[in-house]
Amino acid sequence: MLSKNIEYFMQVCRSKSISKAAEELYLSRQALSESVKQLESAVGAPLFLRSKSGVALTEAGEILLRYAESATLLWNAALSDIGACAAPERMALGVSLIHTPDSVIASIAEYESVHPEAEIRVVRDADHERLFGRLLRRELDVAVLTAAPIVDDLEKVLVAPSDLYCLMGRENRLASRDAVDFFEDLEGQTIACTSESSLNRYAQHSRAAGAHVKLVGPHSAVLKETLIRSDSVFITPGYSAQSMESEALVAKPLASAPFDADAYLAFHPDQKERLEPFLEHLESVFSKLRRS
Fold first, then answer.
1. What would the 3-class secondary structure string for 111-160 be?
2. What is the CATH number of domain 88-161+262-290?
3. CATH no. of 164-255
4. Boundaries of CATH 1.10.10.10 in the chain?
5. Is 4-74 a CATH 1.10.10.10 domain?
6. 3-state SS assignment for residue 241
């Protein structure tokens, strides 16, 4: 912060009048004149040429003004840099609305408690393609995607290798099986889908299995009701299967699936250094899920 005398001096330079500057500073003319005299005494030279029409800078005054303006710019730059350091590190994480266990969401609060400088916004969406698009547009910093990004613009880290499960009602004829084979056991079953992208993904393979596909929407309550009341299954990654089981629903390993559900953390390469602590945290969370 510049001294008051320097600030007052710069205002007189802008106003070109001690009387006008005093009004703008809400000071008496006498108090401002005294401030100028103190500054002139400190630098050892007169700063203004006074006349009836106002004041003009002396050579010493012009030199002091240049340095005062430079000091002001440096001070403002310092405040800006310090403010950037003190501001929270904001990140947006995109995750599946249905497939992401509550423990992953809960871990965000744990991360923020250890890293108080971080502020993380979680964006949940049932549609993988929408999450992918938002990541490409940089509306998200990192996203958990269940298919490898196929563009060079993104970097990916595998956090959950593929292991698929079928979630179903306990009254479903497949509920007594140790495992479910996609092509041998799904005949007559309906594969419940929570998004258009998953509907399209399963549709091309369901015919070969003698199964049907149905869009039930992104609401977990509707999905659960569909599974309980009909011969329907919901295909989900292993890391989320256990968290979705209940008294009414059971999850069974799915074999021979013609697709995978590898989970990746996807992000833009130029953000890797900034995101690295958070990426390591997410990798640890998914590692614990795989072991549980």
1. HHHHCCCEEEEEEEECCHHHHHHHHHCCCCCEEEECCCCCCCCCEEEEEE
2. 3.40.190.10
3. 3.40.190.290
4. 4-74
5. yes
6. helix
Please report how the helices 59-86 and 4-15 are oriented relative to each other, as an axis angle in degrees rounded to 10: 120
**pLDDT 10s digits, 137-186:** 899 999 988 765 566 778 888 887 768 899 999 999 999 999 999 999 99
Residue extent(s) of CATH 3.40.190.10 domains in the chain: 88-161+262-290
Question: Which pLDDT score, from 0 to 100, does residue 188 have?
Answer: 94
Q: How many helices (H) and strands (E) does the chain have?
A: 11, 13
Q: Which of 238, 261, 273, 281 is nearest to 109 (CA)?
A: 281
| pLDDT, average across residues 200-217 | 88
The region of weakest confidence among 12-26, 61-75, 78-92 is 78-92
